[in-house]
User: Fold these one by one.
Assistant:
Number 1:
Amino acid sequence: MKNSIKVCVIALVIQLMIMSFCSTVGAQGTVVFADTGWESIRFHSYVAGIIMEKGYGHPMDLVSGSTFVIMLGNRMGDIDIQMEIWSSNIQEIYSEALESGDIVELGVNFDGNTQGLYVPTFVIEGDSERGIEPVASGLKTVKDLVDYWPVFPDEEDSTKGRIYGSPPGWEVDNIMRTKVKTYGLDKYYNYFSPGSDTSLAAAIVAAYERGEPIVAYYWEPTWIMGMLDMTLLEDEPYSEELWNNGFACEFEAMEIYIAANSNFVKNNPELAEFLSKYHTSEQLTNDALAYMMENDTDEKAAALWFLKNNEDIWTQWVPEEIAQKVKESL
């Protein structure tokens, strides 16, 4: 056990050193944004980063890492800004970082988010246009999955079904693994961990296009939910008691926060003021990510598309002279 702990600590230190080396912390005026592995945080980082670069003259950098490592980097000052803090997923480490004064909560990026286990709606209701019959018409809740494991077969294990879980390295991966055990679903399903959010999305899209059942963890806002007809399986209403007892309920409805290193806020009050006014919505984010996928482009291009088509929104976040500089650059 001691050796395992030492290995974990050493690996963590090495990753932090790599992050520090690869980022441009210390470069003149560069702002370092966090990338915890999903499209929406990269999209919002580019929206804010482009405004900072073109409007305020501060170039941006984007540094990738697991949720836990990113939070440590933010506290230490190796990372300046996190554009999406899903607080209930990292409640303990986030609260500790706020209480210590290492990071500052600047505002709410968006709310109305959802996450949990989804299935294609045709699994429950069928799809007459595609000639798909419903195969689990009584499936409504996560607990109902016990009765429908043959509908979601694991191609590598004929004795169980398969639940596609969270990508590894995300804090929610631990939550979903625990929830599956709490509900006794591990007796009927293998919890399958995709290699990345891209792999998870690819698995969902492939099954959807073939008209085949799949049950998988996912969240909103995402392009998947903007483009596909998916149904979130119901769970027990959220309560702190149930959540602390094996995550035996739905995810707590939460606002998605923007947070920054406290020294960054102190040294860059004009940028902190801008971020405190930055506010979007689940639908705006879904639309931008759907644009990205429909046009086979990346998050930076989606950010530019957003800025060009939503001047009435983002110009309210910055002074008029800053907005003018950004518009001229576009």
Number 2:
Amino acid sequence: MKRPRFLPDNMTLLLLAVVLTASFLPCSGQAAVGFNHLTSAMIALLFFMHGAKLSRAAVLAGATHWRLHLTVLLFTFAVFPLLGLLLKPVLLWLVSPELYLGILFLCVLPSTVQSSIAFTSVARGNVPAAVCSASASNLIGIFLTPLLVSLLLASSVASHSSFDAILKIVTQLLLPFVAGQIARPWIAAWIGRHREVLKMVDQSSILLVVYVAFSEAVVQGLWHQVPATMLLSLLAISAVMLAIIMSLTMFASRRFGFSKEDEITVVFCGSKKSLASGVPMAKVLFASHAVGMVLLPLMLFHQLQLMVCAVMAQRYAARENKMH
């Protein structure tokens, strides 16, 4: 039976199911402590497997295109945060201060890896450069995101100093990633044959962290603080921010004289924000009772960017087909 076109992807449906489960059956007490330990282990495993999966040859192949990579990094870590700050008066009129902090956190996160590369490939863009840009964004984000959080967000919200946060993120994310790179010669072939295992670890780690975070938020009264009208406002804000960033990346690519393939890479790598990196980072950077509220804007933006980029990738690909 063919899947209905209006039905969201499986990950979106699972996220909705997890949020509903946390809303009606939140974990607390010792169960929450156990889930926290489990999520930390799952996240470490996830980054280990990503390290083992990432080909150094593919990264080196695209690493020489420094103007493209610099453009992506500037949009990810400078233009996006600046947009969040410039829109502050309007955003605070539409959403609560706590949700605005979540929007700012979204703005300082690195780009996605898998989906940026996948959409660039579908759209017939510069895939080696996309691999390099998206990977560099995530590795730089391990250090830069905590610094930007400490710079832009109120110190009372973050639960650690920026140095402590970087140290924790390095321990939980970077070290497993490096260990995966070291182990790559021995396990890369196995991972290549079992891509579904990586996908399962990826999704289950995110779902676990979201469940624990939303459980804590529900216990603290999340849904009393976020009415339906505010959720709609968040969705509208996400759409506007995504439209602005995608338009700016497209304009900048053409202004800088990039080829169509490079433009595609800049648009898809420079406009995205990573749920896979954002969820564990929020867990480290924020007090446990604030994580659910902080993640809500990211979850909405993440799903919207996937749907919009899927349409954009098909349009780019159709345009390329007409030219050949």
Number 3:
Amino acid sequence: MSNEWIESYIIAGKAVIAAKKLAGKLIKPGASFLEIANQCEEEIVNQGCELSFPINMSLDELAAHYSPTIDDTTVIPNKGLLKIDLGSHHNGYIADSAITFNIDGDPKLQNYIDGAQEALDGAIEIFKPGTKLYEVGEVIANKIHNHGLRPIRNLGGHELKQYNLHAGPFVPNVKDMSHSEVIKPGDAYACEPFSTSGEGLVTNGKQSYIYRFARRVKKNLPYEELSYMKKIADLTKNLPFSPRLLEKHNIIPKNKIQRTIETFKRKKILDHYPVLIEVTGAPVAQQEHTIILDMDGNPIVTTRE
């Protein structure tokens, strides 16, 4: 990894830090999900970066993948755990970080956040060359168990590469020895513990709000759809996106966006990310940072102040 790559990772991290700070100022009961989403995403752009995925704003038992729709009317409730997951990139080098907000300061709910944060801190402490990924998972699980909670075992962190958000090895949130890859100099990972009082499993919900360009199709597409397909591919560079991005950049007329997305899903041009729900309906907290290792093996947490 050259110094230029490292610098791009750091720039992306600073953009996410700024957006997280802004989210903290905006989140209060009654505030609009849509306004928070648009402002936080715009902050990433203002910092000289692009989105590596749309903001995730997942409340309580929703663990991940809720992103506001084009005309979303959702508002912040008076109580609950709101997970804000933000991603940026600079020259394709990605920062991915999440923070959970305890909307009314409930001490019981704060325990979920504290458990996830201690798990993340413990993981960062051993995130260095020679550590096996399942050893990271073991630390995460132990820290969360210490809070009387469970880690979500079918969610975890992931390797990052240029323009590739989920590039390869999985960072488990439990001691799963099938993930025996060894951390090495030059690696970049997102590490993201999830804590819950439920079963510790998530399942796919019925709705999807986030999509990703998967493949080009040349046959049996009307000219209009061919044009839309090329524009989406060029704009998103195979990174996840929200329909709001297509509206913002006037890629597709607003009244045709959802219909086009459904058509492209059916034709396998787009992948989609269903919302992820804790199977028992228990609340979920998430804390996440991006960690890169320079060629000397020194870890750098790019999304931490």
Number 4:
Amino acid sequence: MGNLSEIVRVCLSTNALVTGIVTIGLITIITYIAFMLERKISESSPFVKKVSVNVSEMFLLLLVMFIIEKVFESLTGGTEVELGGLFANAELTILFYCLFVFNNRLIVLMNILLPFLYHPSLNIARITGTYWWLFVATYIILIVVIDYLYGHKNALIVSNYKYWLSQIMFGVCWWIIMWIDNRFPLPDMIGMLILFEVYMLVVRVIEQKMSTYMHAYTDLEQKVNYDALTGVRNRANLNKLSKEAYDKYITSDEPLTVIMFDIDRFKSFNDHYGHDLGDEVLRHVSHIVERELHIDGSKGQLFRYGGEEFIILMRKIDSDQCENIINGINKTLNEMPLYYQDNELSVTLCFGVTTLKREDKSFDEVFKRVDSYLYESKNNGRNKMTIEGKIYEYDRNAVLRT
């Protein structure tokens, strides 16, 4: 190499083309898997779940590195420097991109340790030779870049110049480290660095296109499965999940309990104050119920069935255990009232509760039973709950009593 024409030749070579196609294909797969894995966890997810997702992402990165290595084992054309440079660029592209798309401390740690793990970096000549100061300075800058990538993903998503600056610094740091270890000609390093930037340009375009597609998919899923007014799951989603739950729990020793509730005298809110307030009452109630289900840790799923009626699916919790949960909802509803024009509105609920029985032929039978229990609560003065046919009064200060 050693001149511009040679650099251009390498960038346009068959090996470079194969490397680019393989790398871009792997990036596409990583983007999709990252979207599916990252949406499964949040700040409130259990520690074990977070660890399992992080380990899965780390395994994916190692698998991709293995595939790249096998691809390069099949490439026999080109000089050793050329193939080694293309191989390094493919790995650097994957490493940078995984830092960008995964919120994973294991991948961060791998990137920080990698300069000391790859061959021949275990040779301490780099820190005892003439350029030890260059290695130390470059390594510190690389750590800063990695830390920035991990902590400022949102900024990188919306800011092209921050993204480009980060990936340029990432590539420059790595190629300086590899130059210290191998001392290949400077024009070779410049050519490979340019090729790395070309790869990253293509990857950025793919990432943005994939991100647009994934967000469109999320928006569509939100519209299909969630109620636009309250933000909770809708009836269509209930129809799907209730069937799945029935098929799973009808033969299980673990209970599946269905809670149905509606807002007492909801029509009067619309008649006296207008539909805007009626909508606000629906949002207020659904948010409080969701909050209590989250605080309780029951993992109950809330659905808006229609109008002012809602359903909660409670897995692994029987009808008797639901007493405390409902009592907590009622208590919070009283402690966090809804105000309208400086007036406190009295919002109360009626509940029906039943647990799936072995003799139930379908979920429809469970629904009919819980619906009848709800109407028993309404027909007996409202602001009550009926559990397996037995009517209970609320106790705002203690566990519900019969």
